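Hi there, hope your week has been kind to you so far. No rush at all, and the record is pasted right below.
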Amino acid sequence: MLKNFFKTAGRNILKYKAYSLINFLGLTTGLALALLILAYVRSEVSYDKFHEKADRLYRIKYVAPNGLALASTPPPIAPLMKEFFPGVEEAARMYGRNVSVTRPDAAEAFEETNVFFADSAIMKLLTFDFVSGNPDRALVDKFTVLITEEMARKYFGDKDPLGEVLLFSGKHSFKVIGVVKNFPENSHIRFNMLVPYENMFDLESDQAAQALRNNLAINFVISHSYTYVLLKPGADPTEVDRNMDAFLKKYAQPNLLVGQVFTLMPLTDIHLKSTLLVEPTPTNSMTNLFIFVGVGILTLVIASINYINLSTAQSFTRIKEIGIRKILGSMKYQLIFQFIAESFLFCLIALLLSFAVFYAALPLLNDLTNKTLVFTDVVDNSMLMASVILVTGITLLAGGYPAYFVTRFNSINALKGEASRTGSQLLRRALVVFQLAIACMLLSGSLLIVKQLNFLSSRPLGFQKEQTINIPLFSQNLNGIFRQNDSTFWLRLQSFRDAVETHTGVKGTTLSSNAPGLGAVFRGTIPEGFTQQDNMFIANMSVDYNFLETYGMEMQAGRPFSKEHGTDRAEAFIVNETAVKAWNWETPEKALGKKLVREGKEGRIIGVIKDFNFTSLTTPVSAMVIEMNPNQFNVLSVKFDNENVQPTIDKIEAEWNKMFPEKTFQFTFLDEQLNSQYQNFQNFGTIIQTFAGIAILISCLGVYGLVLFVVQRKVKEIGVRKVLGASVGNILQLIYRDFAWLLVTGFVLAIPASYYLMKQWLENFTYHTSIDAITYVMSFVMVVVIVALTIGYQAVKASLANPVSSLRSE
């Protein structure tokens, strides 16, 4: 009997080809999209859970005196925590930087990113998968290095790297004592090499190393290292938070600043809940994840509504079949099972097809989300179980609901085709309204996301970012200061700079600690009117005489740095408008001449610059101090005066290779660097737009199927109207009228939901666009056009049909 049920189900799928094709397209697409979102969400929520002790692992969050929330903390904290807090089992620091690395017998050096200096206790906190080497000796001895498999292949090929030597900064020998597998991509921190924490001082000059070692041992202010904490089983993290003030009073006085706050953040919360600065890798947000899940659920709901609606509509074409089956002795449960069997077979085929689509679309998802999800890893037992549960639910709804309606009709009425459809029509219309509301909501939401991204990319930043390249000069050292021990370097750099400025097309050059818009270093600052106890953590940039002019920045009061004033280099500061307001100096003019102390350097304010965004637009402008300190110069910026810059860049590269043959020429366009800060948002917008498009496509498939059903049901009515003189326009009006109010109702329902959700999303941005009526009008017009075109083919076909064909049986 079961075999007959499925055989009949297969025949019905083939018999109603148009309905089957529409259902397959809609349901397969919806299921595939749900699988893609499920894979993405599972990846996001799995961050850092691969560590064996993840449930007891935390990282310290640092709120600096200026209110900035930071992921990195002062270095002295970790070594003291185990002694002070009974609930702390271990604590360890990790500090990352770029290092020039090579083999002793190799000519080429590589600038390696993510080289981390870490306490040996980190091996007891995080989970490392050793390929070779002794885990118990890792990071214990100085001048040893733990490398990843990727680094082992890069530097040693197939050779066993244990015992081999790598040169750091061209002169410091580090012995390879272990090889570990790369951390998986669902880790908030990724490293290429691990080196003992104390070795970070050895990469500096002897004089600088001792000074930095002494400073960092007592510096409870600087944002420097990531501090990880392992609590004992059963220990309460809130107990650590409550006693942190007592800890600081015991160890940090008198080097503590007012307003410093330290709290524990669970390791597994970092990726989705951290909004901290200086995270080692880009984070996501729960808001974005909820939007993804919501879009996935809504799209799947649309696909399911399509299938349920069309299945219900199609079931009424089989009323006579049901009547005959009843007369021939079929029981009600058998008829219900027949519908469910057909639905199950249909959903099973759609599920198999959706896995094929999922497999094909996974590389696209990886491109948009910067992931490397692998089909065989993603499709595991839990995903298969979720798919089975999902398909079972759709099967019961899409099979059981129509079965309930058609099996309750009287056999005689069913044979006459006189079954009432009022209840099912009302439900179908309600489902279509809901479906169109979702489509309108997704479309208006995607338009607002595009509007916000355009707003970010076009918003004035307070400086000119176009036609500018940045040439990095040095690697950053452990104190955030950029130094070059080669005494000839500055002479060569000046010669290089002079040569660059002679080239046609070069408008100007400038040296600075970093380019505007890409961040700043925060340093202890005491403005006039404040005391040592009020020492503030203030953004700081070091620039040369040409910086403000090269970037087109405007002075609000006072003057820029000038060679005509010999003391500017040692005693002058420029602050921004926000600093004037924050320090209650009333007006920019009144700020001029005010005294300011910045980490021991004392000087006076010579100018106030208009606010500019020195970090990304996700962070509000804060107080900033600009000074002249060549020790912090790290980037040479070159501004061009035309768009055809490549020939000039080629000439600049030739000059660089002549002047610095030992260092590879590298450059980046500033506008591209700034845009890359919003790459995650752009990818998010692209994904939402894609999903919204798919949802609308599925909705259109459902509308098309219902139009097909309506036209078939009204074929004789249309024939009679045409015989009585109805025009093509009258017939089109008849068909469109059925859907017009459904569309309007759906749109009206979509507006408040869309407005609320997008308002919540926009609040994540410091600077955001407005939600206006134009966006909703545009989305409504777009949906109207799409639905009208969807209905149009069947409507025109019905209006042009010969009425004789439809009325012949009458």
